[in-house]
Design brief:
It is built from 12 helices and 8 strands. The protein is α/β, with parallel strands linked by helices. The chain has one domain: TIM Barrel. Helix 2 links the parallel strand 1 and strand 2. Helix 5 packs parallel to helix 6 and helix 10 packs across helix 11.
């Protein structure tokens, strides 16, 4: 069954993984996959490096998911450095391997560049090309930015591009990280008012590590960090800062554990708040691990909803 069909029936549970760079890492991830299957996810997505830098491992991981036949595999796919010919060939390869779900993205521009360096400049170009060349062979997910994409002039302009993705044939929305739930609710109201009817699958990053949390918020997404989250970070701050590997904070290990516990509780409460909104699915960034996302999914009631 297509993910879009499930989204129209009930809330979905899904996970994001990234392809390891080594064979040893891939072997370890295969074990994590087997554990994730026990949670009965509706799909598992696999990231794809800019310009296809991890495309080999991306396909290897997706092949494993297809072979296991326990859930649907969804590939991320970016515009960076892509020509029409390379996209045509890669998408044909995905279909040949039984992969027919795709998250169509522009991708992060190369450092210092203002161009994708290829034939496709926006995700809208990619969605249009996929539908033109492959018809309905792919289920297409697209990214939604509740706080507006950092390269867009305004939230309204960003929403107009999202509407364009729908009009060009996209099937559902997978949101970028957003911790500001009031803004998320306003965004939902605005996209519905704009005529966007696609189901919304909310992307959720478990809060487990100080440095990773700050990095994810500021390095790419420009996410607002609510005061409560900032309080958790401040309360367990690792001196001189959490980005230093060999810090001189004698209490660092205790602080890391306390921050992780508080972050998991914060994530669970966020999911509970999301449930009251017009959400069709919950997509957790598993970070290639099992225990933390399994606990979060269980404690937030997502496993019950997914039975």
């Amino acid at each position: 069954m297509s993910v879009i069909d499930i989204l129209k029936q009930r809330n979905t549970l899904s996970f994001e993984l990234f392809p390891p760079k080594t064979d040893a890492g891939m072997d370890k991830l295969r074990g994590v996959l087997q554990q994730l299957y026990t949670l009965k996810p509706d799909y598992i997505s696999c990231t794809y490096g800019a310009g296809g830098t991890t495309v080999g491992k991306n396909l290897e991981l997706l092949d494993q998911i297809v072979h296991d036949n326990q859930t649907v595999g969804v590939t991320h796919f970016t515009c960076i450095g892509q020509t029409e010919d390379t996209v045509q060939r890669q998408l044909k390869t995905f279909l040949e391997h039984g992969i027919d779900h795709i998250l169509a993205l522009r991708g992060d521009l190369p450092s210092g560049s203002s161009s994708t360096g290829g034939d496709f400049h926006y995700a809208t170009d990619l969605v249009e090309f996929i539908r033109k060349e492959f018809g309905e062979k792919f289920t297409i997910a697209v990214a939604g930015s509740p706080e507006g994409h950092i390269s867009c002039t305004s939230l309204d302009a960003d929403i107009s591009y999202l509407k364009m993705k729908q009009d060009l044939g996209a099937d559902f929305i997978l949101t970028q990280l957003c911790w500001d739930l009031d803004q998320f609710a306003r965004w939902l109201d605005k996209i519905r008012a704009a005529g966007i009817t696609m189901p919304v699958d909310v992307g959720i990053m478990p809060i487990l590590d100080q440095a990773a949390t700050i990095n994810m918020a500021l390095s790419r997404n420009a996410c607002v960090m609510p005061r409560k989250l900032c309080e958790i970070i401040s309360k367990h701050w690792i001196f001189p800062n959490p980005f230093i590997k060999d810090c001189d904070d004698s209490d660092a290990e205790r602080k890391k554990a306390a921050f992780k516990a508080a972050g998991i509780e914060y994530t669970i409460k966020q999911i509970e708040q999301f449930k009251s909104m017009d959400i069709s699915g919950f997509h957790l960034y598993a970070l290639n691990k099992f225990d933390d996302v399994a606990y979060i999914a269980k404690e937030s009631g997502l496993l019950v909803e997914n039975t």
